[in-house]
Amino acid sequence: MSKILSIALNPAIDISSDADKVRHTHKTRTHNQRQHAGGGGINVARVIVELGGNCELLYLSGGATGTLLEAMLKPLGIRQHAFPIHDPVRVAYNVRELATNLEYRFVPEGPQVTEAELAPVFDLLEDTDADYIVASGSLPRGISDGSYARMAEIAAAKKARLILDTSGEALHETLSKSKVFLVKPSLGELASFVGQEIDHDNAGSAAQAVVRSGAADYIAVTLGGDGAILVGAETIQRVPAIEVPVQSAVGAGDSFVAAMTWSLAEGHEIGEAFRFGLAAGAAAVMTSGTELCRRADVLALYEANKG
User: Fold this and answer.
1) In a 10 Å sphere around its CB, with 0-12 CB exposed, 13-18 middle and 19+ buried, how is residue 238 labelled?
2) Burial 30-40 (b: 16+ CB within 10 A, else e)
3) 157 by DSSP, 3-state: which?
4) What DSSP string describes 90-151?
5) I want to staple 254 with a disulfide (CB 3.0 to 4.6 A). Which of 43, 106, 108, 208 is the partner?
6) What Gene Ontology molecular-function terms does this entry list (predicted)?
7) Sign of dihedral through CA atoms 105, 106, 107, 109?
8) Mean pLDDT, residues 204-219 taken together
9) How far is the CA of 16 from the CAs of 74, 131, 195, in angstroms?
10) Is 254 a catalytic residue?
11) Separation between Cα atoms, residue 182 and residue 197, nearest integer Å
């Protein structure tokens, strides 16, 4: 089995609750509160372990919320590398309004991080023997938008495969300055990167142009309720969404990336890993709040839709 390292530079404590109705000004009484260690890279590690894989986790942690985050991660059986920062870890909040089944997601920008605080992360990357490195989530304030590009260069020098899931300037800088093995943008994120309007019909050709430019070996474009597209230099594979009862969209993208990475680490080819990712994304929306996907659901959905 290949080794996986997941990176969370802007982790969070994710809290989710239900409310009968969300109203401005008035107090909104909530119930059924749940809390999980979260943020892109942490969610990826959680899902990989849930699927039965082994995953090391590298993350930044500071303040009282950082202490709580570390305590929440301990029971999960993930080998951890927590690097200290001065500012506290952010707390994100998700409320599902039962009257409409709509979700309201409040995601703070997170701590200010210095380049000096980030330096030990690169030191560990230089020493890791991971075969797959997953860089997932937003970058914290204060560090260079090119931080993921630097990670991609380190991974390439070590012949490790870097899998990227981010947005905005961090995505643009990485794909413009380095090469990754796999990147998972949404349709909007891909459009922003190429600088033109993209719809479901031309998303495949737009992504293929990015692959052929040398920015990535593969791009998996997620299309929400319309499924996803896997693009290589010579292939475009489109798969429809798996129809499931929707509880929450939280963590669907992270589950997709995690399941693809897990499947690749198990030795499966990229197309099969792509279908595992779709199954995990669908399984994640079946759970409420920040629970993410369950192994049994992922395997059942994959088997039912692998044809």
Assistant:
1) middle
2) beeeebbbbbb
3) helix
4) EEEEEEEETTTTEEEEE-----B--HHHHHHHHHHHHH---SEEEEESPPPBTS-TTHHHHH
5) 43
6) 6-phosphofructokinase activity; ATP binding
7) positive
8) 97
9) 20, 34, 35
10) yes
11) 22
162 neighbors 180 (Cβ within 8 angstroms): yes
User: What are the pLDDT digits (tens) for 242-280?
Assistant: 999 888 878 889 999 999 999 999 999 999 999 999 999
Number of domains in the chain: 1
The tens digit of pLDDT for each residue in 20-75 reads 999 999 999 999 999 999 999 999 999 999 999 999 999 999 999 999 999 999 99
Residues 6+ apart with CB under 8 A from 20: 29, 97, 98, 99
| The two structure tokens encoding residue 58 | 């590298």
Identify the three-state secondary structure at position 7: strand
CA quadruple 22, 109, 6, 126: dihedral, nearest 10: 180
**CATH code at 152?**
3.40.1190.20
Which pLDDT score, from 0 to 100, does residue 307 have?
A: 63
Q: What is the pLDDT of residues 121-156, one digit of tens each?
A: 999 999 999 999 999 999 999 999 999 999 999 999
Burial level of 279, CB count in 10 A (0-12/13-18/19+)?
buried
Whole-number Å distance between alpha carbons of 76 and 88: 22
Mean pLDDT of the chain: 94
Token code pair at residue 53: 């894989």
Q: What's the pLDDT at 305?
A: 86
Catalytic residue among 14, 87, 165, 254: 254
- Domain of residue 15 covers 4-305
Alpha-carbon gap, residue 50 to 44, rounded angstroms: 10
